[in-house]
């Protein structure tokens, strides 16, 4: 997770009571998800929080600065997870299963930011950079799939890049329905997703 740097000259102030930098960022992400990033202004955010626009700019350079921090929050932990799996110990198959399982936990922990990430369309430089990072994640996961195929652990008749996209697609679908206060906790969902993805739904004798 990316934290706002308290030592940055533009972000040293603590803000009004109840609205520190982290709270402002959370409110911005919620508003971007509700209204859309392009349709949301700093004025809208200030109104939402009941503060002035200068109070927002005291902590953040721009609306794009807020977007960058939100997308970093969505991507940083997953990037570390996939990077470690790519060069980790053990079989590629075991590392691939672990990545998929833990990516569910990462999504749940950062669900609002991940939701925002999945809705961007590359309209700004910040969005394009985030989309490039998503492509890198797909590529690294596809490489793990290829390794697992070479080990003989996975079938070889489905393209690895398609497998990668489908696996991440299953995980990303959680933003549409998963709620922390719902019936299933993150661990249960992660276990079920990995079981379905790697073992299927066919009943075993």
Please describe what this structure looks like.
The chain is built from ten helices and no strands. The chain has two domains: 9-63, Arc Repressor Mutant, subunit A, CATH 1.10.10; 70-199, Tetracycline Repressor, domain 2 (Orthogonal Bundle), CATH 1.10.357. Helices cover 67% and strands 0% of the residues. It is elongated, with a radius of gyration of 19 Å. The chain is mostly helical.
Element layout with pairings:
Layout: H1 21-35, H2 42-49, H3 53-57, H4 63-86, H5 92-109, H6 111-119, H7 125-151, H8 160-172, H9 174-177, H10 186-199
Helix pairs in contact: 1-2, 1-4, 1-6, 4-5, 4-6, 4-7, 5-7, 5-8, 5-10, 7-8
Please give a quick description of this structure:
This protein has 205 residues and is mainly α. It has helices spanning 21-35, 42-49, 53-57, 63-86, 92-109, 111-119, 125-151, 160-172, 174-177, 186-199. It is 67% helix and 0% strand.
| Secondary structure: number of strands | 0
CATH architecture of the largest domain: Orthogonal Bundle
Strand content: under 5%
Low-confidence stretches: 1-18
For this entry, give a set of tags.
205 residues, mainly alpha, Arc Repressor Mutant, subunit A, Tetracycline Repressor, domain 2, 2 domains, 10 helices, elongated, TetR/AcrR family transcriptional regulator
């Amino acid at each position: 997770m990316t934290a706002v740097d308290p030592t940055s000259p533009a972000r040293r102030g603590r803000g009004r009571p109840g609205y520190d930098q982290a709270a402002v960022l959370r409110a911005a992400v919620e508003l971007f998800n509700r209204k859309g990033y392009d349709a949301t202004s700093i004025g809208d955010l200030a109104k939402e929080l009941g503060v002035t626009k200068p109070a927002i700019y005291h902590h953040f350079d721009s609306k794009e600065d807020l977007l960058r921090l939100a997308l970093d929050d969505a991507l940083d932990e997953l990037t570390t997870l996939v990077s470690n799996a790519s060069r980790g110990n053990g079989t590629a198959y075991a590392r691939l299963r672990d990545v998929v399982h833990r990516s569910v936990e990462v999504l749940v922990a950062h669900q609002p930011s991940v939701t925002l990430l999945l809705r961007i369309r590359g309209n700004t430089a910040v969005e394009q950079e985030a989309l490039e990072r998503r492509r890198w994640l797909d590529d690294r996961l596809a490489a793990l799939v290829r390794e697992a195929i070479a080990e003989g652990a996975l079938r070889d008749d489905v393209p690895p890049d398609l497998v990668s996209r489908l696996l991440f697609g299953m995980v990303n679908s959680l933003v549409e329905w998963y709620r922390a206060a719902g019936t299933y906790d993150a661990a249960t969902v992660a276990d079920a997703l990995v079981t379905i993805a790697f073992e299927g739904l066919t009943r075993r004798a």
